[in-house]
Write a structure and sequence with these properties.
Aldehyde Dehydrogenase, Chain A, domain 1; Aldehyde Dehydrogenase, Chain A, domain 2; 2 domains; 6-stranded mixed beta sheet; binds 1,4-dihydronicotinamide adenine dinucleotide; binds magnesium ion
């Protein structure tokens, strides 16, 4: 086997990764690999197995072979395994975070808090494994005992993006495994390493081989083959709405289940009665944390005109002081953009906003100043005078670019907030309790934060309205995304009723 575990002291050397299938490292059928780059240094640090449909077949076969005994294992025993995995994650979290930073350039602070936090998802859903209780249903029929069972779907295909690889995988994997499903995972071609390293923990925790499998490669070959595979019963996807739509269309041809989490154009609404200091920090966390590369980026600041100039001044002070640089250093606030195509896209959107007539009051293009290295830094950028019809207000940029849209009345604020194809998150900043409730009713989004932003927990459902997606991840209800309901009818006496009509 050519793969070697990456350890942080191997920076500079290339690490070679194979697929992870049936509990073993399996070289790609193609015999070829593609390069993974560190976005901060620009260096190639890993070579990743270039998968194809043959590798997907092999992984789906391994998962299918593991499914019968995994799904019949006592749910409490499955839960205990998930708990053991959680304990191992805690010991490996910092190492996994460093690998993610090497691949996506996001801050070590952020990635380490994510990799530590994912343990809680496995604990929570491990605890739920033996609480998937069906019902005994009183029917209108005589001599019938009717009850429901929740049964796992089978092999779940999980397709993840580059911005938070292990966190977004965990949102799918923890409930799916708890409910008795098995998985074939395709991580982003930009950030495959942390998922492959994570796979190693499952054997150590005592999971049977084949319960989790990872095939690396590109969306158009490995991803598409997974979606098309007839033995894959569901696709759980996080990524762009364009790819999500393609996956949904392909899944529809086989009436396959999907959950889709597709990003957004989330509004952060600041009313004149807000605690302005908190609101400024909330707006900054919404758009400049993670260099804006989050599905819940608060990329539209919907700002009451009466406080507009004062608020923008304060915002510029905080955002303008953000320290740009090495994502591994604890003092860094804003790192590079994760991938070259993403960098090009962000820079292009800044140009589009300028052409559309928005006023750039901060940043406005590539950043090559102090702290920068490589060629993927974009300056934190703020546009004022944005109209909600402009592309900068309608399309997901996925970078550190904020569009400020003024409003006068509360009704106007909600109209602007909802005038979008998306509906993932929304922030509301107000000290009026009635307005907080009105806003949380009026806004069409899967998550509404009042006087906070970017808060998430394994206990609470997360997902989108409108083009932001289908299904929920997190919380009690999310485990139901990974089961199907069977209704069982048992006649308590021999049924000798007239056979030619419905009972
Ligand atoms: P993408 O949606 O193309 O990629 C996400 C995952 O889907 C990757 O693993 C990719 O290989 C796979 N994939 C792509 N096309 C596929 C297909 N036809 N069938 C099966 N799998 C497929 O996202 P990409 O290109 O990395 O980023 C583009 C844009 O997507 C970003 O600029 C951003 O706007 C958005 N995005 C949203 C995310 C979110 O959290 N909602 C995360 C990452 C990107
Ligand atoms: Mg990379």
């Amino acid at each position: 086997m050519s793969a070697a575990l990456a350890s942080p002291d191997r920076i500079g050397e290339r690490v070679v990764y194979d697929h992870h299938i049936g509990g073993a490292r399996v070289p790609p059928a193609s015999g070829t690999r593609f390069e993974s780059r560190n976005p901060y240094t620009g260096e190639v640090w890993a070579e990743i197995a270039h998968g194809n449909a043959a590798d997907v077949d092999r992984a789906v076969a391994a998962a299918s072979a593991a499914f019968p005994s995994w799904s019949r294992m006592q749910p409490s025993a499955r839960g205990r395994l998930l708990g053991r995995l959680a304990d191992l994650i805690v010991t490996q979290a910092d190492r996994l975070a460093e690998i993610e930073v090497r691949d996506n350039g996001k801050l070590l602070q952020e990635m380490a808090s994510q990799t530590r936090y994912i343990a809680e998802w496995y604990r929570y859903f491990g605890g739920l494994a033996d609480k998937l209780e069906g019902s005994v249903i009183p029917t209108d029929k005589a001599d019938i005992f009717n009850y429901t069972r929740y049964e796992p779907l089978g092999v779940i295909g999980m397709i993840t993006p580059w911005n938070s690889p292990l966190l977004l995988l965990t949102w799918k994997l923890a409930p799916a495994l708890a409910a008795g499903n098995v998985a074939v995972i395709k991580p982003s071609e930009f950030t495959s390493a942390s998922t492959l390293e994570f796979m190693e923990l499952f054997a150590e925790a005592g999971f049977p081989a084949g319960v989790v499998n990872t095939v690396t490669g590109f969306g158009h070959d490995v991803g598409a083959a997974l979606v098309e595979h007839p033995d894959v019963k569901k696709i759980a996807f996080t990524g762009s709405d364009a790819s999500g739509q393609k996956i949904y269309e392909a899944a529809a041809r086989q009436i396959k289940h999907v959950t889709l989490e597709l990003g957004g154009k989330s509004p952060n609404i600041v009313f004149e009665d807000a605690d302005l200091e908190a609101a400024v920090l909330g707006v900054v966390s919404g758009i400049f944390a993670a260099t804006g590369q989050t599905c819940i980026a608060g990329s539209r600041l919907v700002l009451q005109r009466s406080i507009h100039d004062r608020f923008v001044d304060e915002l510029l002070k905080v955002a303008g002081a953000a320290r740009i640089g090495d994502p591994m250093l604890p003092m860094t606030n804003v790192g590079p953009v994760a991938t070259k195509p993403q960098y090009d896209k962000v820079v292009e959107y800044i140009e589009i906003a300028k052409r559309e007539g928005a006023t750039c009051v901060l940043g406005g293009g590539p950043y090559r100043g102090e702290g920068a290295r490589g060629d993927q830094f974009v300056a934190p950028t703020i546009f004022t005078g944005v109209h909600n019809t402009m592309r900068i207000a309608r399309e997901e940029v996925f970078g550190p670019v904020l569009a400020i849209i003024p409003f006068d009345t509360e009704e106007e604020a909600y109209a602007i907030a909802n005038d979008t194809a998306y509906g993932l998150g929304a922030g509301v900043w107000t000290s009026d309790i009635g307005r907080a409730f009105r806003a949380s009713e009026q806004i069409q989004a899967g998550t509404v934060w009042v006087n906070t932003y970017r808060a998430l927990s394994y206990t609470s459902p997360f997902g989108g309205y409108k083009r932001s997606g289908l299904g929920r991840e997190g919380g009690l209800e999310s485990i139901k995304e990974y089961v199907q309901t069977k209704s069982v009818w048992i006649s308590t006496r021999p049924d000798k009723s007239y056979p030619f009509v419905m009972k």
